[in-house]
């Protein structure tokens, strides 16, 4: 593997223009595992210039050839799956089985799906007397988070490349080593120089420079709603397109007659996965008044299986750990009933938080309104189906959710009324081709599948 002290720009690894570096720490044992360059605005400019120079050639590359490069990228990621999983475990803290199956496994499938889409997508269609062309938007600035470091990279870079765009990636500063491995995979896949570029750095410096750069045509960002708002304002000043995948406070709605034990157990597992660091996690469990206490008991029992340091990893850093523990204290202060877990750190070393369940949570409480981003579940009581819908839709977010009912038809009827971008019906499985994204302050645009590809295309019509 190449040294960690370089960036990938214009098809070559090169030192950063500045001298500052970013420390990478293993959140499970708090040990230093490396440093990467803290990129500057000048590094971003060099990467954008390389992407602009490469854009005409890549945009003109036949879709079948772009598809071949993406297939090669998927193969390169698959070949390094073990190394990627180990790196993600080291810098994110995720248990290795989760890193192997989800963090390193899912991106292989997503990259392969865009290889297929690039080969089959209708980039041109006839409408009446017009020929309508779908053309690449240009240079994409991709800013990715730390919670799913490889998946989020692939979910942006793969559709951008399939569309014919070139990319500058600024990954999260907590998980940059995974991004460097991804850059090596693009080399193995034979992408032309400048089609993909990597600049590591801090958000307020490198991220802001990328979002504001006049040579970037579209900014694709995943992260907090607060930062997404800033990026949207920056892009809006330049009339620049954005794709924003932001926060969530998703509802897990258990309707009367549903399989309560299954719904509660799957709901707890959904939040505990990745230590609760998932924007689409079902952190609000809604249960009817008649079965409420039974659900609380089931949840308290289910969460005991998620042992910190074994099935549940640490949070990504000390700041995040302190933030989540603060939310747990806030829930207790506002009168929620703590039935499992609590604010005390479960282990002496590592940024762990105890898997926590609250009961008697009311919709106006802070823990029912704000995104916690940790292993914390709030259980809310509703009186009837309309009350459940009011509570489910009663936040500024609308990213994901779940509905459980006696039959799929009843669940779908409820889901149609939810103000959210993706709803799982009676435990429906994740579909990497389905569009992912949110309503309201959960973002703008969609990722994955053909809808994700469309974000990176612009439309031209020819009349003759």
TrEMBL record:
Pfam families found in the cross-reference section: Aldedh
Occurrences of domain Aldehyde dehydrogenase (ranges): 18-461
Coiled coil: none
Top-level taxon of origin: Bacteria
SUPFAM superfamilies in UniProt: ALDH-like
InterPro entries: Ald_DH/histidinol_DH, Ald_DH_C, Ald_DH_CS_GLU, Ald_DH_N, Aldehyde_DH_dom
Active-site residues (renumbered): 245
Keywords on record: Oxidoreductase
Family statement drawn from the similarity comment of this UniProt entry: Belongs to the aldehyde dehydrogenase family.
Protein name: Aldehyde dehydrogenase family protein
Native organism: Streptomyces bacillaris
